[in-house]
Amino acid sequence: MGSSKIFKLFGAALERLNAYMVSHNMRFSPVREMVLEQACLLPQPFTATQLVEACVSEHISQGTVYNCLQVFVDAHILHATERQRGRAAIEYELISGTQIRMQVICQKCGRVSSFRDPAIERIIRERKYSNFNLQHFTLFVYGECRRCKTKKIEE
Ligand SMILES: [Zn+2]
């Protein structure tokens, strides 16, 4: 990812954070901004552990990072997805502008993959809500992945 793209991501995320803090009467926190910047610099998606490691050089504690992650999720800056790779883990990803995401989740092994469906995206973008301005959208599709299906046949 180029530095100008990261700068844009951080700017948009910061704007969302400031709006959230104002509406929730939260105090400005330079540490929170630093954590947010580190989150923007990480390859997406990332885990809490990766963010904690990235924040070590800034002398930010693990507790603070976890705290910030919760705020970022609540403020819809980050999207949290539970994934299973051996054991359950939550992965975080920055929500950018007017993103439309589709995620396919295997109920057997927990594998998550993202895909795009232009026809569905078009329908969602064209929807108009009188009292609501759509910003981002995630569609979760649950089922069985090809790998699990193949395994079942082999057994
Ligand atoms: Zn599966």
Task: Summarize the structure in words.
- The chain has 6 helices and 6 strands.
- A 3-stranded antiparallel beta sheet has the order 1-3-2. A 3-stranded mixed beta sheet has the order 5-4-6, with no helix packed on it.
- It has 2 domains: 82 residues, Arc Repressor Mutant, subunit A; 57 residues, 2-Layer Sandwich (Dna Ligase, domain 1), CATH 3.30.1490.
- The radius of gyration is 18 Å and the shape is globular.
- A hairpin with a 5-residue loop joins strand 4 and strand 5.
- The termini are far apart.
- Helix content is 47%, strand content 23%.
- It has 155 residues and is of the alpha+beta class.
- Zinc ion binds next to helix 6.
Mind summarizing the main beta sheet?
3 strands, antiparallel
What CATH architecture of the largest domain would you give?
Orthogonal Bundle
Helix residue percentage: 40-55%
Please indicate the percent range of residues in DSSP E strands (runs of 2 or more). 15-25%
Task: Show unreliable segments.
Answer: none
Mean pLDDT level = 85
CATH-defined topology of the largest domain = Arc Repressor Mutant, subunit A
Overall 3D form? globular
Number of domains: 2
* CATH class identity of the largest domain: Mainly Alpha
The number of distinct β-strands equals: 6
Strand order of the largest sheet: 1-3-2
Number of distinct helices: 6
Radius of gyration, rounded? 18 Å
Structural class: alpha+beta
Name the hetero compounds present: zinc ion
Secondary-structure element sequence?
A: HHEHHEEEEHEH
Distance between the termini: 43 Å
